[in-house]
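Reopening: Rieske iron sulfur protein still failing for me.
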Amino acid sequence: MNGAPSYFSEEAYDQRLADFLALFDRTPPGVVRHVAPADLNNPKTQGQVDEAKRNILKLMAIGGLAAVAGGGAVAGALQYAQPPLKGLASYPTVQLFYSDGSAVTVDNVASHINPDSNELTLYNYPLTNEPNFLLYLGSPAPNGIGPNNGVVSYSAICQHLGCVPPFISYYPAGKCGNFNNGRAIIHCICHGSTYDPFVSQTSDGGGAAILTGPTVLPIPQTLLKTDAQGNIYAYSMIGPPVKDHFTSLTGGTGVSGRSQASNLTPSNQQCPA
Ligand code: FES
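Support: Ran it again with your exact input. Result attached.
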């Protein structure tokens, strides 16, 4: 995927599998979604893909390959077009690591993640191609753990049309003047949706609340816990399903064991109007 952040490229096979699942199971005809454009400062004018057209081209390509392979083109295409479903029966418990290899702990999180910086700490959960924000907000937040109960995690896939970092990112307190009374926000510059990481919006107590649309769903929250040594784990999700999923557990390969965080500092942030 050209221009994709590094945490997506490491699972190229799973991305292809997810594309096939989207082709046959999840993408309504004519849906246009955003993918990461090459120009980080121009997300509204680049990177739009007509899924229906793309899917037809994929199917034609598959059929053509099957024909070249020696007849039975239709049967071959259909067989290839139905990969085994991958997913999880339940949420895995996954230990979080920083990119330098050290474990994320309640003792070191404040020194690695600055609530006043827009640098993002991202890790994949519960599927290998799905980024989450790991945030230290510095003050109590719903389901927060660690210092000041301010360590929280949310899906980093926008609930509107699925934009991912750096297009959706964290804006520290004061970054955007009086917007949200000066408090930190999660903002997606693809179409302007904003979310409040300090406020839950769903009946189960999860989901960063909607501040502005066009999204109609809050962002799912990934729940965190610690072991006796203070190491931090992701272990479940609450709120709505991750964007484009019927449940957050299906549609790809599950993360297991540990998930390594990567850092990204968006250079394309624009405060909401
Ligand atoms: S994808 Fe439209 S606002 Fe995020």
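The pocket of FE2/S2 (inorganic) cluster is lined by residues 34, 158, 160-163, 168, 188, 190-193, 215 (CB under 6 Å). If you still see a failure, please send the error message rather than a screenshot.
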